[in-house]
Amino acid sequence: MNKFILSIIVLVISLNFLHAEEKVDKKEEQSRFESLSKLTNVIGTVEKYYVDDLKLQEIINKALKGLMQELDAHSTYMDKKYFKEMQIQTDGEFGGLGITVGMRDGALTVISPIDGTPAYEAGVKSEDIILKIDDKSTLNMSLDEAVSLMRGKPKTPITLTVVRKAERKPLEIKIVRDIIKIESVKTKTIGKDILYLRVTSFDKNVVDGLTKAIKDAKGTKGIILDLRNNPGGLLTQAIGTTDLFVDKGIIVSQKGRDASSEETFNANYSKTLTRVPLIVLVNGGSASASEIVSGALQDHKRAILVGQKTFGKGSVQVVLPITADKSEAIKLTIAKYYLPSGRTIQATGITPDVMAYPGEAVKAPDMDFMIKEADLKKHLKSELEKVDGKEKEVKKEVKKDDKKIITDEDVFKDNQLKTGVDILRSLIITNK
After folding, report:
1. Each residue's pLDDT tens digit, 360-372
2. Which residue among 148, 288, 290, 315 is the active-site one?
């Protein structure tokens, strides 16, 4: 390596540090200079003796990449190629799988598949560990690298090899990429008085969608807000969603090392739409914005949380260009989110008030045939009509509306939902 160039690099970096830290004592200045000299020596040694011929730029890029990976799972270095791809994906149309992933204990982990997307339809599940993307191992792969590999042209195939709890060997899941179109808010009813609101991700339409659904639902006595497998999204939408149910106090705050990154967001009385009893459903696929909403509602004692512990992603990242032409950048964690009680979400998640596990709810057998003797003749007559096909027209009428109605049968198939409904009905009774 040209030692003169290296010396200039060290000198420029040192001068920048000295300018920013004019009052640093001489001992610390010496320590900084020694540390930078050590870095320079390592770079020079690698360039001179490493088995492959690496150029200085390659070595620096690898050093930057390693540094960012060591900070945390969400900080990363973006070279020219990756930064350009990210900008294209942000501005244009691209194919994807419909999953949100994160790093947990160094492993690439599925936070959640989004309802109705290729990954969801293929059977990818929350907490699956992605071992390989096609033929590439994810070990030592950065989060952004993995996301970049999974994105691609619509209608192109991809194979994920995943490790899943309770499965004895890794599973190969074949998926075809597609344009991801998400219906962020889904509205249904349970019985005549419960409004069911499913939020799949916090995109820009969530608050408007929830507002319309709540205003349109007449006679609602209780609400179930389903945030299971919701990977998060826009902070503004998380704050706005919480504001629909909470009329005062802190919703969330963000705090970092730099005081300028600290900010507190409060509820606004004028934006509160309803005060009816509220149940929030969460699980291991609930992350980021959905954890802010559920955690804030829990802290304000505005809702009862039902389900399983959430993922635990509560940090703030910003993209900062690092070259004069802004062709390269770093994504850096600058703050963490804190709930109204002061607790953090990062790496701890939200623990529900009532633990409930997925699967079918326990149901008494043959409930349809537990009838009184006086009703037997009438019951047998209706069963005969079913055999003769006289109820086909009625069945068709029910099917027209079933997309907006959750039946008792549907509720029993979902233990977490059943638990939430039972608690909500109790709250409705005591709220009278």
Report:
1. 988 766 555 555 5
2. 288
Residue 230 to residue 197: CA distance in whole angstroms: 13
Distance, C-alpha 261 to centroid of its chain:
22
Q: pLDDT of 335-365, one tens digit each?
A: 999 999 999 999 899 999 999 999 998 876 6
User: What distance, in Å, lies between the first and last C-alpha atoms of the chain?
Assistant: 79
- Residue 287 · residue 311 · CB < 8 Å: yes
Selecting among 313, 315, 331, 414, the annotated active-site residue is 313
**Coil, strand or helix: which one is 285?**
coil
Burial of 37 (0-12, 13-18, 19+ CB in 10 A): middle
- Coil vs helix vs strand at 378: helix
How far is it, in rounded angstroms, from Cα 67 to Cα 74? 12
Helix (H, G, I), strand (E, B) or coil at 351: coil
DSSP string, 198-222: EE--B-TTHHHHHHHHHHH-TT--E
Q: Is 299 a catalytic residue?
A: yes
Do 197 and 190 touch, CB atoms closer than 8 A? no
Q: How far apart are alpha carbons 211 and 206 in whole angstroms?
A: 8
Tell me the three state secondary structure of residue 301: coil
What are the residues whose beta carbons fall under 8 Å from the beta carbon of 375, sequence distance 6 or more? none
**393: which strand partners?**
none
Structure tokens at 25: 């004592």
pTM: 0.76
Bridge partner residues of 213 (DSSP)? none
Is 62 one of the annotated active-site residues of the chain?
no
CA distance 366 to 380: 15
Beta bridge partners of 354: 306
Active-site choice (299, 331, 414, 418): 299
One DSSP character per residue, 45-76 reads HHHHHSSS---HHHHHHHHHHHHHHHH-TT-E
Tokens encoding 213 = 């659904």
Active site residue 286: no
Q: How far apart are CA 260 and CA 73, in angstroms?
A: 23
What gap in Å lies between CA 214 and CA 218, rounded to an integer? 8
Percentages (nearest 5) of helix, strand, coil residues in the chain: 40, 25, 35
